[in-house]
Specification:
alpha/beta; Rossmann fold; 2 domains; seven-stranded parallel β-sheet; 13 strands; Glycosyltransferase family 4 protein; Glyco_trans_4-like_N; transferase; glycosyltransferase activity; Glyco_trans_1
């Protein structure tokens, strides 16, 4: 990259994505991680994050707010117009749109479409502008690249599309900066804690966790269970009918409900806990929470649905979130078996090495170079 003049990259966040330590979701955390300056990584790209105006602290990175308050259009059109105004001032060489196919299509009408990449972190078949195969195929032909965080999502994008008519999406998995994580405790020194960390919603199997722990904990003297998270990724997340119903069940089971915690606190908890459980019901597009558990050395029990199968198979115990007794039995079995926990911990640490930040940056830089020279 030494002879390659620095190029400007605009990374466009979804319109409701926070971009700060107390507000960021998975997409923003990943982009902050990738964009953070690193003396050991001279990429040749100057990255600016573009997103909705933020409340509170933001990450110490170049950020431009797309202020849509002046427009009377519908919300999608307002955000697209606000982003367009920012991009016309910024004049980026590349535009990376995250999780918004319709926004990528709108921007392709104003900027060079072959210099636009659409990055998908969720199933596109439920997204505006990509629900139908014909729309996805048209975007594949128009944009410079479609990039998915898992093979599962790439296959979802190609559903109903004749493979010879378009280029298949690229797969660039999510990543973690392993060097920034707390040092994981050895298995023998870990707290006898079973942790759920994630959104407290039915899709994530929060109720399955509570009910499985209610069965398992009476069989596990000295063990405790905690839940970290809320309905949304913010400290003021509202109570929902689901959390209102779940709270008394969790308290009756002796589960500590810690609510929302920032990312650093979650990582610290995972680095100490003996077991992490991710009983997701929905097909996870990737499973960043699973990667975080693996990278912190917690023995992982997880459903293998969607992208989780690619990430966690062979490094976790597979569970069915709708079989509560089966989840409870798996918890009891792993908790009572220190050697198995140690083996799972090491398997998780080994698996996480595949998703370390330097490799993710290398692959992203290669894609950006390709888009600039194609």
């Amino acid at each position: 990259m030494a002879d390659f003049p620095e190029k400007r990259v605009a990374v466009i966040l979804p319109p409701r994505e926070g971009f700060g330590p107390q507000s960021a979701g998975a997409v923003a955390l990943l982009q902050a991680r990738l964009a953070k300056p690193d003396a050991a990584h001279a990429s040749g790209f100057a990255v600016t994050i573009v997103g909705a105006p933020q409340k509170g602290e933001i990450f110490p990175l170049p950020f431009l707010p797309a202020d849509e308050s002046w427009s009377l259009w519908g919300s999608d059109a307002r955000y697209a117009a606000a982003v367009t105004r920012v991009l016309r001032r910024l004049k980026p060489d590349l535009i990376e749109v995250h999780n918004r196919p319709d926004l990528a299509r709108r921007l392709a009408a104003s900027f060079a479409p072959r210099r636009i990449a659409l990055f998908l972190h969720n199933d596109p078949r439920s997204m505006r502008g990509a629900k139908h195969a014909a729309a996805r195929a048209a975007l594949s032909r128009k944009l410079g690249a479609v990039v998915c965080v898992s093979r599962f999502l790439a296959d979802a994008w190609m559903e109903g599309i004749a493979i010879k008519t378009v280029l298949a999406p690229r797969v660039l998995p999510n990543s973690l900066d392993l060097s920034a994580l707390p040092s994981p405790l050895p298995p023998a020194e870990r707290d006898k804690v079973i942790v759920f960390a994630g959104r407290v919603v039915a899709d994530k199997g929060a109720d399955s966790f509570v009910r499985a722990c209610a069965q398992a904990l009476p069989q596990l003297p000295g063990w405790q269970a905690i839940m970290i998270g809320a309905d949304r990724f913010r400290a003021d997340s509202p109570e929902t009918p689901f959390t209102e119903r779940l709270r008394p069940e969790a308290e009756a089971a002796g589960i500590a409900l810690l609510g929302y915690r920032d990312h650093a606190t979650v990582m610290a908890a995972l680095s100490r806990a003996a077991i992490a459980v991710l009983p997701s019901r929905w097909p996870e597009p990737f499973g960043l929470a699973a990667l975080e558990a693996l990278a912190n050395g917690a023995a992982l029990l997880a459903s293998h649905r969607g992208g989780l199968a690619e990430l966690a198979a062979g490094a976790s115990v597979a569970i069915d979130p709708d079989d509560v007794s089966g989840v409870a039995a798996a918890l009891v079995s792993v908790a009572r078996d220190p050697e198995r926990r140690a083996a799972l911990s090491q398997a998780g640490l080994d698996r996480a090495l595949r998703y370390d930040l330097p490799e993710a940056r290398r692959r992203l830089d290669a894609l950006r170079m390709e888009l600039l020279t194609s």
